[in-house]
Amino acid sequence: MLTDDIGALVQMAKQDNKALDALIDAYLPFIKDAIARITFKMQSQDDCLTIAMLAFAQSVRTYDPERGTFLAYARTVIASRLTDEARKEIRIHTPLVPLTTTIEEGDIQWETQSAIRAYQAQDEQCNLQYDIEALNIQFDAWGFDWQKLLKRCPKQDRSRRICHTVAKACLEQKELQAQMLLRRQLPMRDLSELSHVPIKTIEKYRVYIVAIILIKQGDYPYIHTFLPQFWGEEGSL
Questions:
Q1: Would you call 123 exposed, middle or buried from its count of C-beta atoms within 10 A (0-12, 13-18, 19+)?
Q2: Contact between 112 and 40 (Cβ < 8 Å)
Q3: Among 212, 58, 25, 233, which Cα is nearest to 135's?
C-alpha cells in the first residue's frame, strides 16, 4: 500500500485517465527538469518533452512502492526512455556503420553512460541542491521564490502550527490536492471549512502554506529536514 502523498495520487492516476492527465500537468515542471538533466544533441526539446511525458505516464502505470519513491523512479524511467530514443536516432542516421567502430557512436555512448552515471552518483549535497532547484521550478510556477517565501513565513510558533494544520487538511484530501496542483490555486474556502481556520488567515499565509504542501507532496527528503520539528509530532503529518 502506498503511504506517501504523491504515491496516493499515482494510485488514483492508475485507475483514472483524467487523474493521470491532471498529475502530468501538475508535475510538468518536474518533467522539464528531468529533460534538462539528460538531453542529447540529436533530440529537439519538443521531442524530448513528448517522450518524457509518455515516460512519466508509463512510470505511473508501472510504479511499485518497493522500487522506492515515485519521483526517483519516474526520473529513471524518463532517463531510460530518452536514452533509448537517442540510440534509435543513431541507428536511423548511421544505418550502414557498425556501432562499435565509429568514433561518433563511441562519443555518444560515452555521453549516454556519463549522463546515467551522473544521475546515479549523486551524493547528499547534490541531492539537497536538486531539492532546492526542483522546488525553485515549483515555486516559480506558483508565482513566488525563496526570498518571497522567507518574507511570508509566520514569525510566531502558533501561526506556523496553524499553517501546518491547513496544509495537513489539504494533503489528506487527495482530490482537493490534485485540483490545487492542476489549477495552481489554493482552495481557501474548502481548507477553511476543513481546518476551521479563517479564510483571512489562510490568505495571509498563502505562500507559506503552498510551500509546505509542495514540499510534503513531492519527493524532497533533504528539504524535509528544514521543516519545523513539530511537523513530525503525534497528530501531525
A1: exposed
A2: yes
A3: 212
CB 236 within 8 A of CB 168: yes
CA distance 118 to 178: 32
Q: pTM of the prediction?
A: 0.50
User: Tens-digit pLDDT profile for the chain (237 aa)?
Assistant: 343 468 788 888 988 888 999 999 989 998 988 887 665 555 677 788 888 899 999 889 888 887 678 888 888 888 878 777 766 655 454 443 343 334 444 444 545 555 445 444 444 665 667 677 777 877 888 889 888 998 889 989 899 999 999 999 998 988 888 888 878 899 999 999 999 999 999 999 999 999 999 888 776 777 766 666 544 443 344
Residue written as cell 483524467?
18
- What's the grid cell of residue 67? 522500487
- Helix axis angle for 28-37 and 45-62, nearest 10°, is 120
CB 219 within 8 A of CB 170: no
Tell which residue, 48, 33, 40, has the closest CA to residue 110: 40
- Return the closest-CA partner of residue 219 out of 33, 16, 25: 33
Cell of 18: 483524467
SS3 content of the chain, % helix, strand, coil (to 5): 75, 0, 25
What are 228's three cell numbers? 519545523
